[in-house]
Write a structure and sequence with these properties.
about 230 residues, 10 helices, binds adenosine-5'-triphosphate, CobQ/CobB/MinD/ParA_Nub-bd_dom, DNA_Partitioning_ATPase, alpha/beta, Chromosome partitioning protein, single chain, Rossmann fold, binds magnesium ion
C-alpha cells in the first residue's frame, strides 16, 4: 500500500484539489483507494458528498491518521490519499510520518514559493520523499512556460527542492469538476485539465516505484529526503 500526502501550510495552494482529482483518477475496483480528510475545513469531504457514490471511500481524521492507515492496509487498499490542513499541526506531522511520498502543491508566486520551506523541513526531518508541484499556473503559450513559473522554479532550486517538471494550469474545468463531485477525466475526458492530472499521476507512480526500489530513480521527480 502506498500513502500519498498533500501538505503545505499555505492555504489555497491546491492540496484538496489535487487530492480529489488524483483519487478520482486512480480509484477502480481493481485498484482500491481510500481518501483521508485530515482537514477540519472538510473540502475533500464536501467534494465526496457532491460525488454521492462513496467511491473512493473517505474517512475523517482529527488528531491522527495512523489508525486509519493501518486499517486500510489490512483491508487491502492500494492507494491512500491524505488531505491535510494548511498548518504544521500534529495531524500534518502524523500524516507525513505515514507517507510513502509527500506532494507539496505551490502556486507560482513569491509568497507561495517561500511558504513551502516549512513543509520541506518536516519532510526532511522525518526522512520522507517529497516533491513540489506547481499548481494554478498560467497556461503555457507556444509550448513555453510562463515566466512566472520559470521564476518560481529558480526560487525552488535555491531551497534544493525537487519540483515536478510539469505544471497544473489554472483551469476552470478543475473547479467545475469539483463542483460536480467529479475528477477531471470524468468531467471532460479529452480536456487539458485531465491530461495534466494524468501526467502528474504518471510522475507520482514513477517516483513511488523508485521509492519502493522496483525501478531506478531516473525519471522520478521526488527527492529522497536526507
Ligand atoms: N489548478 C487550478 N485551477 C483552478 N482552480 C484551482 C486550481 N487549484 C486550486 N484551485 C481552486 O483554488 C481554491 C483553493 O484550492 P484548494 O482548496 O485545493 O487549496 P488547499 O491547499 O486545499 O487550501 P486549504 O489550505 O485552505 O485547504 C479552490 O477553490 C480550488 O478549487
Ligand atoms: Mg484544502
Amino acid at each position: 500500500m502506498n500513502v500519498i500526502v498533500f501538505a503545505s501550510r499555505k492555504g489555497g495552494s491546491g492540496k484538496s484539489t489535487l487530492a480529489a482529482h488524483l483519487a478520482a483518477l486512480v480509484h477502480k475496483s481493481t485498484k482500491p483507494c481510500l481518501m483521508i480528510d485530515a482537514d477540519p475545513q472538510g473540502s475533500l469531504t464536501l467534494w465526496h458528498k457532491l460525488r454521492g457514490t462513496n467511491e473512493p471511500p473517505i474517512k475523517s481524521a482529527i488528531n491522527s491518521v495512523s489508525g486509519i492507515v493501518a486499517a486500510a492496509k489490512r483491508d487491502g487498499i492500494e492507494w491512500v490519499f491524505i488531505d491535510t490542513p494548511p498548518n504544521t499541526s500534529a495531524v500534518v506531522e502524523d500524516a507525513i510520518k505515514n507517507a510513502t511520498m509527500v506532494i507539496i502543491p505551490a502556486r507560482p508566486g513569491v509568497f507561495d514559493v517561500n511558504a513551502v520551506q516549512d513543509t520541506i523541513q518536516t519532510c526532511r526531518a522525518l526522512r520522507k520523499p517529497y516533491a513540489v508541484v506547481i499548481n494554478g499556473a498560467p497556461a503555457r503559450r507556444d509550448d513555453a512556460e510562463s515566466p512566472i513559473v520559470t521564476i518560481a522554479r529558480e526560487a525552488l532550486a535555491k531551497f534544493r527542492a525537487p519540483v515536478w517538471g510539469g505544471q497544473i494550469t489554472n483551469r476552470a474545468d478543475l473547479l467545475m469538476a469539483l463542483a460536480q463531485g467529479e475528477g477531471a477525466r470524468e468531467y471532460s475526458a479529452e480536456g487539458r485539465a485531465a491530461a495534466e492530472i494524468s501526467k502528474l499521476w504518471a510522475a507520482i507512480e514513477r517516483s513511488v516505484k523508485a521509492i519502493r526500489g522496483s525501478s531506478s530513480a531516473s525519471g522520478a521527480m521526488h527527492k529522497q529526503a536526507a
